[in-house]
Specification:
By secondary structure, the chain is of the alpha+beta class. It has a 9-stranded antiparallel beta sheet, covered by helices on one side. A 7-stranded antiparallel beta sheet has the order 2-3-4-5-10-15-14, with no helix packed on it. A 5-stranded antiparallel beta sheet has the order 28-29-32-35-34. Strand 34 and strand 35 form a beta hairpin. Helix 5 packs parallel to helix 15 and helix 7 runs antiparallel to helix 8.
């Protein structure tokens, strides 16, 4: 049996130096030395300088580190040569240049958004003289020494774009000693380019030291003559310090991301009636023959609509059941489906192996050509632990049968953890613990974040029993997460759950290492977000802004994982409280706001028919069935190529439970698209009272608060700033007989008052 640790390459942090380069690097230093018309850029910086100059084919912006190296920024490129440039205007925060090239006229705007932030923005647009196709354009960022030479430099690359994630790269220069840089290309500004050229931004921001940044995707579709189009909109957050640990790198990254996020253009949000779709979803889960099937008098949910060629899966039942239990608590009455699913759980337990199984024992696979996961003797590491985690959540709510199943399976999980030394492979054999598939890709390790999920399960067992053995297991597993840096993430919902359990472990042990690992886990997730709006192709009628893919290398967003991330983020804010850094508080809150806005586009009924795949890999698509599609990709790809996800049906009632605040005896329901993490209420008499809530987020961004009637009629309601005693009621931005809408700042305490009589 293989027991050596194959998961432990120490990613923190190797030096990156020049090896192979593109054709754009050799001779660059000499070109820059011979550049003409150097001029200072009249924008203030606390350290270093900024100047602009011209080479034969590029207009360069040079950012000099204090007494160290330089950053060369290619603001525009014309392969046939640039003739001249001219400063058009200058203000306290920006400078605009007109650049005359052979292919057209460029406009370059250099901006320093706020004087106290080390943030630089440069935007380039082009008005072509005649139609032309873009072929093999260079990247826009080069790392230089003090003598303009890129070949002698070295540094560390922490993370860069992968697939359609945000167009970022985060790095430090150490040879010569310089500082750190977060580069971010705002793909939203390039939507016209992607539409005209029929391209998209996946993998367009990279690092091939000493070259980094963005390169325009090539295309055979020409740009139009005479029509100005944005070619780049880049942000750079520059720091004089180089992180000395993976935790410093994570904190610096989160701070920089929050800083530049405030300056990004963002789509408007719309309200979507999640309680209504939750009711329809539960009805379909309960009654639709396309969602479930009966086997030996038990009711089982399918993973996908009409996907019955595989046995039922334990994870699917629990993915629906656990949030359904929370929803029925929110609703205040039992839901029969929850009882049906509870009854089927014992049938997944295998007495021979003494563990709960993924696939229902005794049921066969019906396809001759099976993929690598369709084997009852093969365990996907995250899958078993996710199932145990959900059994633990039921046990915490008093479900004794779920608790029994959990503890009857724990010894198997502990045995496996010891066999793998807490370094979990992708697949292993349930009979022998032999590793079937060790790594996701060669040299990348297995499911690196699953050690965090195992920690989660062990902490649940500890909290249910207070047996120190389980706490020792949790600590041993958590320690294995060190040294992975920004390579920690395998599956985003697992990584974000790891961040929550690590924060709990910090509170239990007092060891700050685990809080550091918690923030590192969050940085891994934020680095893989899609912080851009793809308004091209099919993307014109759907939104993906602030989405998170389910896997590190997945080219699509997924409904269930996003809903689970949503719930975990709110639980994290509640658990960590005042110790949550502002950067995390802001980015979590914005993620939740935008999922409440764009989650509707997972439902095929919300999309034009041509945007939905007709032949998915799993089951079939039924447009009128209120089950979400598993996958939404970038603008040129149809949604639903994987299938219509039955277990993703949990999204509707997860979002309802976590975004709508109800209280017994209170006639008002409070919806907020920022998380409410503190709330209490007082009934002053039969028809009057108040609720006080605290919102997450920071004052830099706004969110929607909607007051809704619990029953048919909304009483007289007013909303006040609780921290402004004697202040007037806030004015709604929209009001009807059925709701009042407000726009408020994050991190506010709000007071909702209601009474009978005339409405405000």
């Amino acid at each position: 049996m293989q027991t050596k640790s194959y998961n432990s390459p120490t990613y923190w942090q190797t030096l990156t130096k020049t090896e192979e380069t593109s054709q754009w690097v050799n001779g660059l230093g000499q070109q820059l030395k011979q550049a003409s018309r150097w001029a200072a850029v009249p924008l203030p910086f606390e350290s270093g300088t900024l100047k602009i100059g011209l080479t034969a084919n590029s207009l360069w912006l040079i950012r000099e580190w204090r007494n160290a190296g330089k950053l060369a920024i290619r603001t525009c490129f014309d392969p046939q040569g640039i003739q001249s440039y001219k400063q058009l205007r200058a203000t306290d925060t920006l400078v605009e240049y007109r650049v005359q090239g052979a292919i057209g006229i460029f406009r370059v705007v250099i901006e320093r958004p706020l004087p106290h932030e080390p943030l630089l923005r440069y935007t380039t647009s082009l008005k072509p003289k005649q139609p032309f196709t873009v072929q093999a354009f260079p990247r826009d960022l080069y790392l230089l020494d003090t003598d303009y030479d890129p070949l002698t430099t070295g540094g560390m690359v922490y993370v860069t774009q992968h697939g359609p994630t945000s167009g970022l790269t985060y790095l430090s220069t150490t040879q010569p000693a310089g500082g750190s840089l977060l580069y971010f290309q705002n793909f939203t500004a390039l939507n016209d380019y992607y539409q005209v050229t029929q391209t998209e931004p996946s993998n367009s921001v990279k690092v091939q030291w000493p070259e980094a940044g963005f390169a325009l995707p090539s295309s055979e579709k020409p740009l139009e003559a005479g029509k100005e189009i944005v070619l780049s909109d880049a942000f750079m957050y520059c720091s004089e310090s180089v992180p000395q640990s993976e935790f410093e790198a994570a904190d610096q990254f989160l701070m920089a991301m929050a800083c530049l996020y405030k300056h990004l253009p963002k789509p408007e949000t719309d309200y979507f009636d999640w309680p209504k779709i939750a009711e329809r979803t539960i009805q379909a889960l309960t009654k639709s023959p396309h969602c479930g099937r009966r086997i030996q008098k038990q009711y089982y949910l399918n993973a996908y609509v009409d996907a019955t060629r595989k046995p039922p899966e334990s994870m699917v039942q629990l993915a629906i059941l656990v949030p359904l239990w929370e929803y029925q608590e929110w609703l205040g009455k039992p839901i029969p489906l929850a009882g049906q699913l509870q009854k089927n759980l014992p049938s997944f337990y295998d007495d021979q192996h003494e563990v709960i199984m993924r696939w229902l024992p005794g049921e066969a696979f019906k396809d001759e050509n099976r993929n690598e996961e369709q084997d009852s003797n093969k365990i996907d590491s995250w899958y078993l632990l996710h199932t145990l985690m959900n059994l633990g959540r039921l046990a915490e709510k008093g479900d004794t049968e779920a608790k029994d199943l959990l503890f009857r399976s724990l010894e198997f999980a502990i045995k496996a953890a010891h066999a793998f030394k807490y370094d979990w492979p992708v697949f292993y054999d349930i009979r022998t613990l032999e590793i079937v598939k060790a790594e996701t890709n060669e040299g990348k390790g297995g499911e690196l974040d699953v050690a965090g999920l195992y920690t989660h399960v062990m902490l649940q067992a500890y909290e249910l029993t207070k047996d120190p053995r389980f706490l020792d297991e949790a600590i041993a597993s958590a320690d294995r997460l060190q040294g992975k840096g920004f390579e920690l993430l395998y599956q985003t919902n697992i990584t974000i759950m790891s961040s929550l359990t690590l924060a709990k472990l910090w509170k239990i042990t007092g060891n700050r290492l685990y809080f550091d690992l918690s923030r590192l886990s969050i940085a891994n997730v934020i680095a893989r977000m899609w912080i851009w709006e793809g308004n091209f192709g099919f993307g014109k009628t759907r939104s993906t802004f602030m989405g998170v893919a389910p896997l590190k290398d997945a080219p699509y967003l997924a409904a269930y994982e996003e809903a689970e991330i949503f719930a975990t983020m709110l639980n994290y804010l509640k658990e960590v409280g005042r110790d949550v850094p502002d950067s995390i508080r802001l980015l979590f809150s914005e993620y939740m706001k935008y999922l409440l806005h764009r989650g509707r586009y997972y439902y095929p009924s919300e999309l034009p028919a041509e945007m939905v795949c007709e032949q998915p890999r799993e089951g079939r698509i039924m447009r009128d069935l209120p089950m979400p599609l598993e996958d939404i990709s970038t603008g040129w790809t149809q949604a639903g190529e994987v299938g219509q996800e039955v277990y993703g049906g949990a999204m509707a009632y997860i979002l309802t439970t976590y975004a709508y605040k109800e209280f017994a005896g209170v006639p008002v329901v409070i919806f907020s698209d920022y998380p409410i993490y503190q709330a209490d209420y007082q009934l002053t008499d039969k028809n009057r009272g108040y609720v006080v809530v605290r919102l997450a987020g920071t004052p830099d961004c706004q969110c929607r608060v909607r007051l809704l009637p619990k029953n048919r009629k909304l009483p007289t309601v007013q909303l006040f700033d609780e921290d402004d005693p004697g202040g007037s009621a806030l004015k709604p931005v929209e009001k009807t007989a059925q709701y009042f809408d407000y726009l408020v700042q994050g991190n506010q305490r709000l007071r909702v008052e209601w009474s009978p009589g005339k409405k405000a």
